[in-house]
Structures are given as structure tokens and as C-alpha cells.
Amino acid sequence: MGARQAQLQNAHVAVIGAGGVKSPLLLCLAAGGVGRIDIIEFDRVELSNLNRQILYRTSDIGKLKGEVAQANLLDLNPEIDIRCFNERVCEQNVGRLLAESPLSVEGGAPAGRNLINRYCLSSGKPMVHCSAQFAYGYVFSMIPQQRTACLACAFPDDHTRSHSSGPVPVNALSTMIAGTLGAAEVMKWFLGYRDFMTVDRKKCFNSLLMVGDFEFEECPRNPACPICSRFQ
Ligand SMILES: [Zn+2]
Question: Helix axis angle, 65-76 relative to 22-32, nearest 10°?
């Protein structure tokens, strides 16, 4: 095994959610040989998921996503450790669910995302954000030890929302690109390419109109951010 592969084998990441964006992300991480992946997902597979949640098949409808994802990813790579937690992240369990992993890929509803953002800030552990809606996608990372922008700095309109505003249309082009770029952020962290991570800015794209380069939107740490300004 090469040195780079060994670095991935020793990597451990917690992924919150196993939906549209996380499907390609999880496939990339598992195929790439990330040694341990914790999947935190309480939801079940629905027919309407299948246009973008490429980990699942029609025969999986009604099953727990975490369990199906775990089985499929272990089928892809039986040599890694994949654990699934059929739980919704909340104040009571976030510390337990994320305690062991040195890096988290956040996800879920806004309240859960904000909770994970605060947990990573308070524990000083890096966090990757990758999301998609409509034809748009966004990727960014937070490294608390470098005092980079947090989720609330990057998405100041979102952090006060406690509830999802409901389902939004999204296509698999957007989720596939966002998930793959999110997996790249994870791999950059564990492979030591941390200077190349997307911090203090968001990588943005339109999957239908993309003609080449990604767009970057600067989002430096906001000294007045109501969330991260409370942490060192
Ligand atoms: Zn902030």
C-alpha cells in the first residue's frame, strides 16, 4: 500500500445525511478507501429520492437509508469500516455521534446543520459543507484552528432558520458535482493538502450553465458573527 493510500486508510469521517449530495460523496470516500465512515441518517428511502440519491434503488423504497447505504458501500469496498447510526442529530446526541471522528461533513435540516457547526467550533474540529438546490451547488470547509469562516459566516441568512422551508427541486447534476467536490475537501484534509481547501470562500456552480471554471464567493470570517464570535 502506498503512503497516500495508507493516509486514507487511517482517515475517519462522520457524514451527516445520506441523500442526494452525500450519495456520490460516500461512494467517492468508500471507493477511495477512507478507512472509517460513520453515516448518520434517520430517514427512509422514498420513490421521489431516486432521481438524485444514487445509492438507492427502487427495491430499497421504505428501507432505512443508513442501512442500505452501509450495505452498498461495504459491497463496493469490504475492506473499510462503515457504521450507520439511525438517528437524527440533536443537542443530546451530537457530542456522542461526532466525538470519535476528527472531521465531519455536515448536513440535514438547518437546525441540525447549525448544531453541527457549533459542535465543530467548540471542539476545534474541521467541517465540510456541500449542498445543492435547483441547479446550484455550494462547497466550503471550516477549519476552526485557523479561525476560518463558519457556516453562519458563509450563509448568514440560513443560520437563524430552525426549520427547513420544504423540499426544493434539485437535479442529479448538481448533487453529483457538489458531493464529489465535498469528497475532495475530505480527501484534501486527510492527505495533507489543507492549503488547497475551500476556506473563507464558497465554491459555487450552476450545473446546467457551467461553462468551465467554478465561481468563488468570498466569505471571510465575520468578527460580528453571532455564532463563531463566541468561540476562540
Ligand atoms: Zn461565523
Answer: 30
CATH number, domain at 94? 3.40.50.720
What pTM did the predictor assign? 0.94
Q: Per the structure block, which three cell numbers stand in for 155?
A: 450563509
Q: Residue 23 has which C-alpha cell?
A: 450519495
The residue segments making up the domain with residue 131 are 3-230
The whole-angstrom separation of Cα 192 and Cα 156 is: 29
Over 70: is that where the pLDDT of 159 sits?
Answer: no
Beta strands in the chain (DSSP E): 12-16, 36-40, 81-85, 103-105, 127-133, 136-142, 201-206, 215-218
Distance CA 41, CA 77 (A): 20
Report CA(65)–ligand 1 centroid distance (Å): 31
Rg (CA), the chain: 17
pLDDT digits (tens, 9 = 90+) for 35-68: 999 999 999 999 999 999 999 999 999 999 999 9
CA of 227 to the centre of ligand 1 (A): 5
Distance 219 CA to ligand 1 centre (A): 10
Coil, strand or helix at 90: coil
Confidence of residue 165 (pLDDT cuts 50, 70, 90): low
111: confidence class by pLDDT, cuts 50, 70, 90:
confident
Task: State how many domains the chain has.
Answer: 1
